[in-house]
Amino acid sequence: MSILITGCSGYLGSRFLQWCKVNKQIECLGLSRSAESHFRLDLFDYNSLVKGLQNLPKDSTIFHFAGSPYHKNLADLYQSFIPTSLNLMNAASAVDKNFKIILIGSAAEYGNISNKPIDEDQIPKPCSSYGFIKSLQTELCFKKAVNNIDLICARIFNVISGNEPEGLFFGRLMSAIRNNNKLIKTGNLNLIRDYLLEEDVFEALYQLHKQFNKAKNSIYNISSGEGINLRFLTQEIVAASNSDIKIQETNLDFQPDIKTSIGDNSKIKEILDLDLNIDLIQIINQLQKF
Hints:
This protein has about 290 residues and is α/β, with parallel strands linked by helices. Helices cover about 40% and strands about 20% of the residues. It contains ten helices and 14 strands. It starts with a strand and ends with a helix.
């Protein structure tokens, strides 16, 4: 059995590919339409996708990371996530090699849910274009998951990694600290978010692969089950770094659509023997590694 990863040229997919190779010493193949170091496969081209999957091992698990969340336009987000996902589901069914698909979902699919922590039975009410498209992606993939295709959706909440790109908040913050910047401007940081360390997220994904037959055809939150105030966390990170950088929050009158997002992780804990808790010291230690 092999692990195949789509979107391995992106941030999270590439990190997961490397983590699998280093920590699990397993056969792991990255799927990409451009990167020369990976198995070249164009998810936008259905016919070439079918041909490519025919050359891959039977009973493989496909982690579907592909798609960019950075598009501002709804149509661009749709194009980034939906056609590739439908092509993958249809091609995997046509090839009929008993592929197991783990779709990488997002907490943004839930939107502004009043019940906290949020469990998987909550009906999505996405507030953002990204959340809407990811929710649509999940719905369409499950509709395609019939007959010879099994599917899991892993809804990831917030990932903490000292190696984040600067397009993400902690990547920008740590880069500013390393470069001895004197000021970093942010939006309103008075938010409650559910964080997990990158390695814990990856371990949960890997264990879903190992326990696929037990967990299949369902949605699982990958979350700590606890909320941390982003403003407080940022202040603690800066203090621990001994940096004199100043955090300037702008647009404090703006009220975000989702002020609090905490996931209920009891369902995944019933399937996997994992410790998905986190504390402030773990977060700071993780960020200071890089």
